[in-house]
Amino acid sequence: MANLPKRIIKETQRLTEEPVPGINAVPHEDNLRYFDVSIHGPSQSPYEGGIFRLELFLPEDYPMCPPKIRFLTKIYHPNIDRLGRICLDVLKSNWSPALQIRTILLSIQALLGAPNPDDPLANDVAQKWKEDEKTAIETARQWTRTHAMS
Amino acid sequence: MKFAHEFMETLSSSAFPPEWASSAIQYKQLKKCIKRVQKELQALGLDVDMLKDGRGPVFEYMFDGTVQSFHPKLVVKVDESGGLQVGWGIDEEARRRLEELLRKLRRQKEMGERSGEQEEREGRSSMSSDESSDESVEGDIPHPHTTSEIEIPLFADVEFFHTLTSELESLDELQTKAKGSIETDIISIGDSVARVATPKTFNSRSDLYPWREVFRLYLETSIFFSTQEIESYKERTPEEAEKKLQVFENEIERLGIAKQFKCSNSKVLLEQFMGMNQMVLRVLRFQAINKVAMRKILKKFDKRTALGAAPTFPLFISTHNFLASQLARALCFTMSTRILSIIPQLDDYLCPICQYITIKPVRLACSHVFCVRCLVKLQREYKSNCPMCRNDVVLKADASNIDPSLLRFLKCYFPKECREKQRVNEREVVREQWMTVREGKEEGAEPGCAVM
């Protein structure tokens, strides 16, 4: 990783020096484009109290193309599927090269606080969310306790 | 006792100018004054416990008037016959004495007061007892309009608060003076730095780069304020600021910036800059210690008299300049407009995509600026939206969007950074060309000549 672009170096530096509250991102020593991420579930959401692990990879073309991000911790959320893939516009069609790792992770944290069952990735979860929101939220809370707190 | 000692120590040991120490809050003198208030209250037969119990239903203590001219007053609520409210738990002896005092005061009042003022006072009193009526546990409170208030004159009390406010005023004056002199320093240092740090084009012995480093470190250390969102940009305590200032000075020393100066004047200016920051720190420390002194003396006042001034007095004078002023904020603002802004910092001229200096700068129709190389990359991929604002402007940009005055400015103030960006661009172009040549080979097309 001799030719790490200045942009990535700077972003990594700022992430460690001025971390975003509730978000942690650390690059692998042997691959500085690969980050271990953890996001705290936002308060007053069914994910509150949970710490969710994610993996983040910056492809060769970054920042011309978006980072690849996936949840590693199991999570019950209408916009996140069982493989941890995330349905979020800024990670796909609405990506802009002026966005950064920190802004994207903030968007993901916000997504946890505001699930959007009308634009689902996990169809079964979204269905439940629409039919019986109360039970769905309870399930999400249950999953948070089982998988994201240890 | 302990604080009085600590206060004197701080005043004498912190290198404050002598005229400051003499303007500081006269803690000892105020303490003596409290004793006089205490004696005065005792002479009237009002002891601490009695005042503590009776505050609210029977006694009321307030600051009357405006900050410029006020007097503290203690009033007793009495019923129509001039007697105290029944059921208030004090012993007979104390009650008799108090009633005696009230009778005396009432006689004086009737003799000396004009009737108009009296009406006004009674009108107000009925309101205040209305408010307090539900706090009182007594069932047989007389009707509001039958009660009235009698003021108990306390001369030492008036003296105490007038001394305290006049001290605050002299502190305020001192602070205004110190602020003015620091501001003058800031402006003169700023003008001198501007001369030694003009770009090389105009000044062959330019100290542009070392001074930029000084100011970059200064901003980064954020001595008097936090610049981090996580700490919500709050003002630092003098102790924190002192530590930060030390960190800054050590860093300047470690990097050997003074040795990089080519102009002999720069070294002197750097010392002046440091001295000026030390001065700001001293003013802040002086302000902080005096605020503590005021808080402590009021607490002591309350402990000895039970009049309850500690919570109300600071509110009453909260608009006072000395307490309200955001000195550090004001001075840092002057510093950033008169000194720090003289030298442009690289952070303000970075391409939001590649994080190098925006050379050559392309200004899109939405007025966002990117380096020409990143813009070309966007166009190659037919991305039409501005990365900053998503306006449909990227594909419409052409050579005429290069901002010539910004280009000249960047070349003048950031020659090294411009050359660095140039080298990075060249390397990238070479790599791209090599990739196209290799891809051509792999696709089995005409090998072609790889020499360029």
Automatic annotation (TrEMBL), chain A:
Active-site residues, Swiss-Prot/TrEMBL: C87 (glycyl thioester intermediate)
Molecular function (GO) terms for this protein are: ATP binding; ubiquitin conjugating enzyme activity
Task: Read off the InterPro entries from this record.
Answer: UBC, UBQ-conjugating_AS, UBQ-conjugating_enzyme/RWD
* CDD domains with a match to the protein in the record: UBCc_UBE2N
Say yes or no: keyword Plastid present.
no
Keywords, in A-Z order: ATP-binding, Nucleotide-binding, Transferase, Ubl conjugation pathway
Residues annotated as domain UBC core: 3-149
The EC number(s) attached to this protein equal 2.3.2.23
The UniProt entry's sequence similarity note says: Belongs to the ubiquitin-conjugating enzyme family.
The record's listing under PANTHER family reads:
UBIQUITIN-CONJUGATING ENZYME E2
Name recorded for this polypeptide? E2 ubiquitin-conjugating enzyme
Organism field: Ascodesmis nigricans
Automatic annotation (TrEMBL), chain B:
Q: Cite the SPX domain residue spans from the record.
A: 1-315
Q: GO molecular function: any one?
A: zinc ion binding
Q: Where is the composition biased (Basic and acidic residues)?
A: 109-124
Q: Which UniProt keywords apply?
A: Metal-binding, Zinc, Zinc-finger
* Boundaries of every RING-type domain copy: 351-390
PROSITE patterns hit by this protein: SPX, ZF_RING_1, ZF_RING_2
Source organism, top-level taxon:
Eukaryota
Give the residue spans that cross the bilayer. Answer: none
Cross-referenced SUPFAM superfamilies, in alphabetical order? RING/U-box
| This protein's name | RING-14 protein
Origin species: Ascodesmis nigricans
